Each structure stands twice: as C-alpha cells, then as structure tokens.
C-alpha cells in the first residue's frame, strides 16, 4: 500500500497540512480522487449514514455532489493526537431549486501508518442562507492560497 504523506505521528504543522490536502480534494468534487485518501476498508459515519470501503465512499460522494451544487468547503485543524486529527469545517452549496445552505460540522479522523484515513466520523448541520450571505466565493475548485480560513473570516 502506498503512503499518503504526511503520515502519523502528526505535528501541528503536518496535521494542518493533512486538513488542507483533504479540503483541496473535497473541493475537486471528484469522488474517485477523494476515495484514494482512505483505506480500502475505511469506516465512516457521515450524519446518519454509515459506510465501509472505498466503493461506498465513491457512491456516497457521487450522490452528495449531485444534490449539493456549487459546493465550496473550508476545513480547519481543531486538535490532534498521534494518529488522530479533529477538524471543524463549513461548506456552502445550493440545491436544484437554487436555495443556498451553509453546512457546519466537525470530523474526527484516524489514520493508519501510511497516512490513509481508516476512520472518519462527521457531524453536520445545515443552515439555510440567502445567496447574498455567501462567503465562499472563489471559482469552483481548491480554495485559493490567499483566501482566508474560517478563523480569519470570523466563523
């Protein structure tokens, strides 16, 4: 199995890098690309969905991004311990009817020795927003390096 640096044990710097790499991958909205950061038998809890394995992750993300249009995400390191990282995140998206949402959440990640995520637990809440309340306005794809993070945005 190949490595996905950075690998545990994490430092503050390497954990923040891992969170940013995950953010960039998720902002690609490419389920196959995202799934490669997880072990083949990775276990997830995402809201009330429980998944096991990369094929389930790909199917889940495919359906997610068919519903959550113009998705833009920011993740921020919250804490770490050896091979575990906690992040907080927010993302904005709209549905097929044009209604906008900001989703707020926390994730706990556990990694194997190769830097692949073997466990992900996510708690997420959606809040309806007006389009003029959006704050994540960069072009689709990764957040630009000079775009502020959650703390800098006062979020």
From TrEMBL:
Name of this protein: Nuclear transport factor 2 family protein
Species per Swiss-Prot/TrEMBL record: Xanthobacter autotrophicus
Listed PANTHER family: SLL0781 PROTEIN
Matching InterPro entries: DUF1348 (IPR009783), NTF2-like_dom_sf (IPR032710)
Origin superkingdom: Bacteria
């Amino acid at each position: 199995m190949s490595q996905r640096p950075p690998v545990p044990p994490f430092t503050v710097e390497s954990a923040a890098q891992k969170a940013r790499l995950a953010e960039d991958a998720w902002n690609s909205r490419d389920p196959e690309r995202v799934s490669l950061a997880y072990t083949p038998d990775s276990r997830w809890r995402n809201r009330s969905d429980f998944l096991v394995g990369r094929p389930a992750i790909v199917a889940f993300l495919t359906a997610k991004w068919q519903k959550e249009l113009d998705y833009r995400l920011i993740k921020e390191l919250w804490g770490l311990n050896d091979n575990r990282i906690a992040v907080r995140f927010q993302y904005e998206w709209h549905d097929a009817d044009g209604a906008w949402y900001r989703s707020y959440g926390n994730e706990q990640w556990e990694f194997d020795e190769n830097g692949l995520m073997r466990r992900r637990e996510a708690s997420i809440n959606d809040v309806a927003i007006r389009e003029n309340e959006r704050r994540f306005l960069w072009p689709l794809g990764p957040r630009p390096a000079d775009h502020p993070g959650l703390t800098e945005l006062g979020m």
